[in-house]
């Protein structure tokens, strides 16, 4: 059993009762809503959502398709996807980092001995935006990280206009990020991941 499936707040949600066939027997249906770690097989769906979300705003994506596959092969346990009736509607991809602040190398490396989770990207499908899904997914992801014994911090870099969103999720701004992508400048943000023993005792971790 994966750490993800052991957590009650990340198990599939049945938002409506299963349909029944005319003969009274249940027909198998996909969960109305479920959360799970992503796999390399999800990479194309991830990239399609990310490309639409970011290219229209910044002209580029945080992760390209080969980089998505790279991280989903190396550390799928640091990703989280939200699926509705089997369709990916939102996701987070992370990797481990072993330094106090992010550097250019953090964009492509997974430091397996690190204790900081670098959140590369959070994106929501265009058809379900403005519904609070990004905040809900981030909350669930941070709860999941609290059950990973090696995770101490979550780090991310974002454009200044996104700072209020991540502050509402509990992140604190650390100041300008050392990383630059083209003409874009970023703010680095941090969220402490604490209470490991308490979470393990009380949430099935």
Automatic annotation (TrEMBL):
Its EC number is 2.3.1.87. GO terms for cellular component: cytoplasm. It catalyses: a 2-arylethylamine + acetyl-CoA = an N-acetyl-2-arylethylamine + CoA + H(+). PROSITE patterns: GNAT. It holds the Pfam family Acetyltransf_1. Residues 33-194 form the N-acetyltransferase domain. The keyword Amino-acid biosynthesis does not apply. Keywords: Acyltransferase, Biological rhythms, Cytoplasm, Melatonin biosynthesis, Phosphoprotein, Transferase. SUPFAM superfamilies: Acyl-CoA N-acyltransferases (Nat) (SSF55729). This is Serotonin N-acetyltransferase. It comes from Erythrocercus mccallii.
């Amino acid at each position: 059993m994966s750490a993800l499936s052991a957590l009650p707040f990340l198990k599939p949600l049945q938002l409506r009762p299963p349909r029944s066939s005319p003969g009274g027997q249940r027909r198998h249906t996909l969960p109305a809503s479920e959360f799970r770690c992503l796999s390399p097989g999800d990479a194309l769906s991830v990239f399609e959502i990310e490309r639409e979300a970011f290219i229209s705003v910044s002209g580029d994506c945080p992760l390209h398709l080969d980089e998505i596959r790279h991280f989903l092969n190396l550390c799928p346990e640091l990703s989280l996807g939200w699926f509705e009736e089997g369709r990916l509607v939102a996701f987070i991809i992370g990797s481990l980092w072993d330094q106090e602040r992010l550097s250019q190398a953090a964009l492509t490396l997974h430091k397996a001995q690190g204790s900081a989770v670098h959140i590369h990207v959070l994106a929501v499908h265009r058809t379900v935006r403005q519904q609070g899904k990004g905040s809900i997914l981030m909350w669930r992801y941070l709860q999941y990280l609290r059950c990973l014994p090696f995770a101490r911090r979550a780090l991310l870099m974002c454009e200044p206009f996104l700072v209020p969103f991540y502050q509402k999720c509990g992140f604190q701004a650390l100041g300008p990020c050392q990383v630059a992508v083209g003409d874009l400048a970023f703010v680095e943000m941090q969220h402490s991941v604490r209470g490991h023993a308490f979470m393990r005792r009380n949430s099935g971790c």
